[in-house]
Amino acid sequence: MNKAATVNKENTATEMPYERFLKYGPESLTDTELIAIIVRTGTKDFSAVDVSRRILTGNRPDEAPSLSVLYDETLEDLTVIPGIGEVKAVKILCIAELSKRLSKVKVGRDLCFASPRSIFEYYGEEMRHLRQEKLLMLLLDNRMSLIREETVSIGTINTTLVSVREIFVRACRFNAVNFILIHNHPSGDSTPSHQDVQITRKILEASRLMEIGFVDHIIISDDYRSMKQMGYFD
């Protein structure tokens, strides 16, 4: 291969995604090529597409690229990749955060707090990628409209510490008539644990005494489980 052909090949690798975007639009590009446009430049040894592929494989070149990797990567994870400095890493993490927020905005128009599926579609993209368990409390009025969203606790990677008293202190503080609990399972399995069942039953018993409606406890992972639909509220 002569020098001109080599230069042309290198230009194609770095410029083709941008040119194809202009000609055919973003839907014509792969995930890796979309990231390559953000990255813009590579290194002496790697094109922008090569660098982007490392980003989407978690810097494991033998793995298949996946956008879901972006939800787990940190500034430190990204800046060890050749060609990614702090500025590029911040841009990429901002894109990941924007995607979460855009997802919530789109689904939020039709969010129904009486529907576990609707709640999962709204909170799922944000919560299923978390590395630790997080417990959210949705405080609702008598029309099932949202008063306030509260983070009750952030636990270790496999457990969340829940205070039943804290649940009802918050409900009373904001005059909630009903509430929903949501938490994630970082393991990828949304099946309620023995601890989930125990704490749900304690909160349900207390809610009846306090006359504050405990509407549901939804567990989010790659999918979701409604503990009410599973019969734990009977």
Break the fold down into its secondary structure elements and pairings.
Layout: H1 3-24, H2 31-39, H3 48-56, H4 75-79, H5 86-108, H6 116-127, E1 134-140, E2 146-154, H7 164-173, E3 178-184, H8 194-210, E4 213-220, E5 224-226
Parallel strand pairs: 3-4
Antiparallel strand pairs: 1-2, 1-3, 4-5
How many distinct folded domains? 2
Radius of gyration: 23 Å
Q: List low-confidence stretches.
A: 1-14
Q: In which range does the helix fraction lie?
A: 40-55%
CATH architectural group of the largest domain: 3-Layer(aba) Sandwich
User: Would you tell me the overall average pLDDT?
Assistant: 87
Beta content comes to 5-15%
Assembly level:
single chain
Specify the CATH homologous superfamily of the largest domain. Cytidine Deaminase, domain 2
Please give the count of helices: 8
> What is the top-level CATH class of the largest domain?
Alpha Beta
Structural class: alpha+beta
